[in-house]
Write a structure and sequence with these properties.
The chain is of the alpha/beta class. The chain contains 19 helices and 17 strands. The chain has a 7-stranded mixed β-sheet with strand order 11-12-16-17-15-14-13, with no helix packed on it.
Amino acid sequence: MASIQNILKKYLISQNVTASEWDEIVNPTEDLENDPFLIKDSREWLNQLFNHRNDVITIVGDYDADGILASATMRKGLEILNVGSKLNTYVPTRMDGYGITPVSVQRIKEQFPDTETIVTVDNGVAAFEGVQAAKDNGWSVLVTDHHLAKPDGLPIADAIVDINRPGDTYPFKGISGTAMAYKMLLAYATIIAPAYVPMIQDLRTLVGISSITDMMPMRHENRYWVRKALHEVQQDIDGVYTPHSDPHINALLVALKAKHALYSKTADESIFGFTIGPILNSPSRVTGTPQQAYDFFMETDPEQMAIKAAELFETNKKRKEIVGDLSNTVINKFQQKIDNGEEIYAMATTVPLTSGFVGLIAGNLGSVFAVPSIAFSTVDFNGEILDQPDSILHGSARSPQGISIVEIMTEMQNRDPEVLLGFGGHAAAAGLTIKASKFNDFVTLFNQVTKEITENNAVDSNKAASATPADNVFVIKPEEVSISLIKAIDQMVPFGVEFERPQFMFEDVATTRPLLIGNIKQHIKFSIKPRIELVKWNGSSDFVHMGQPSHMSVTGELGVSEYRGNNTIQMIINDWK
């Protein structure tokens, strides 16, 4: 029988965690934070901010959760540091295009004509035209970003900091756009206003949340930030409000509790990735603009903050209703293709929804089939159908660990410059545009290039086993599972990209008669000996399709279910046969 220590050791080896990194995993501390002055041109950026500290400053972010959190972080930080004679926050929309663009610059000019300096967060490193348009207005432009720079250089901004730009020597390349904003605020406080450093450090709650919502690797300093954020959120859940609590996140959690939408009393990374993140993203998905989320973070009155938090919850509820049925339709379409023997290495589809929803569809496809997946919108935010050959389709891509979607897009563009109009992002997620007439060509090339890269990665991993993480699924006997094992696993939170939560497999186990649960009996629950519950969300129809077997092999995550003071070991099934 495998001991808890042996199981954990095998897991850590599978995730390429060395013995010297053990403390980083189980006890991440502030010491993991890298010096912001290691970021290329950080001192020049700080000098520029200091020189423009009395300007009217307009912050320009992005419309996703990281962009929203980065904008909130920068605004709160500049207020703490008394930088800016006046602070504006421009709310970008999906109609503007990604990042600072000529369109957004014109709208900034109309909305905030007194602007003197632009500070970008979570965008700008590839915004050649947008930065030039801002400079043409006589504005100074200070860029903070974390996305990959284009190979043909950088925009002509007054200063650019980006840990993924050429020549940057910052030791960890996996931090979020919010983290970049925090780094520069912390550096400014360290030099100019040391007394404000503790107040700037309280912004780490937003940094930790963004690290999960933007799918950053759960290694190194990200682990400290997320663990720190989880501690603060846990106190909020427990009703212990401290001076370090972020008032906006606290208001959101209060709203969730009031709606009975906090499904666990214990905060882990899922509360950021599956609750807070989707809520922040929901306004731009449903309406095309994240205005509602930005307004929430700019609100200072506690009563209004609570009202806006409840409104965000309702918008996210609407988003769930819209996406649910269509996701199932798309998943079933690809499952039929696979059942018919089609060789599919990547998935691309169009959906009759606005571009705000396509990331969710791509994410659902990717989570079910574990291949790079893209969904394109065929409806604009005015309700017009994009069905002409020259219509521009906006897509969102998701890719599993070990396969970079940016690498795939780059190779596709090298082979056929006309198949893609543009793209940007990082290894796990990206946005892109194509012409409607090029969709079929895109699908063929996408599948072909992904096949080649996947096969090359497999060859490379055979040559060097440490190149990519090994499978994190472990076959185990039910009698080897204990609450002590589960608690030992929980000590390693947060899990996420490049540090996946361990999965366990029970082989050929006899199950009790299934119990159908849920408002429409869509979920299914079993038990196996010795007293372990198995739950498969939305699994009722699949169970019937399989012929209602009494013996199964199941794979999933282990946890503890608490009900009326009793603790029961539970597996949430991800796969079964």
